[in-house]
Design goal:
Layout (H helix, E strand, L loop, with lengths): L4 E12 L2 E12 L3 E5 L6 H7 L10 E9 L2 E2 L7 H7 E4 L10 H11 L5 H14 L3 H4 L12 H13 L5 E5 L7 H14 L4 E5 L3 H7 L2 E6 L2 E7 H6 L4 H7 L5
Parallel strand pairs: 3-8, 3-9, 6-7, 7-8
Antiparallel strand pairs: 1-2, 1-4, 4-5, 9-10
Length: 253
Amino acid sequence: MINNTKIEIENLNFYYGQTQALFDVSMKVPERMVTALIGPSGCGKSTFLRTLNRMNDTIDGTRMEGDILIDGNSIYHGNTDVVTLRKKVGMVFQKSNPFPKSIFDNVAYGPRLHGIKAKSELVEIVEKSLIRAGLWDEVKDRLEKNAMDLSGGQQQRLCIARALAVGPDILLMDEPASALDPKSTARIEDLIAELRQNYTIVIVTHNMQQAGRISDFTGFFYEGHLIEFDDTKLIFTKPRKKQTEDYITGRFG
């Protein structure tokens, strides 16, 4: 049961040129919970995720029909400030992408971009963000070292800290653990469980076990259609659609 809706998607159709990638998707994403998006490769999960912070705007020839509301306000309204939107809706990608700068400068990048110049304020934001991302204890003595020297799992947590540093309400994660070893994946999953207390999280995952472990709600996409969206336990134990059941039991995918 969804009490507070953070994001409402209404009859969303999305096109790359003449090719339609999403078909009439409607969904209510609950506040301060984890919503997982599952489905086979190429089914529209990542495209859908990128509509939530208008990241698809950067691709030529794309267009969208329908609407997306965050806290009741349309993010596709003509007056929407996309920079402000992306401050509110942070994103973590499949492949960790730290900047070739120091650990400190990676996390301080966003706040500086948004006009924070005072060193003391930046120090506080960097520390708080690294603590929230579960990385502080590992890097606090080498903040001036190059972020590229961190391990893969540490780099991904650094990217999460960088997303948190600008104070978002929502975190979008596109397969954030798919390139990581099992130990680093477990750290990311534990981190997501902690972050759900303060953030609304939408995660694309190719790993159904992961979706089952970490999410409160799950949406199953197939060929651009949202086939089913429900409480994760119900999706995995009593799906209403045969297509969902067939995917979850491994009959296709």
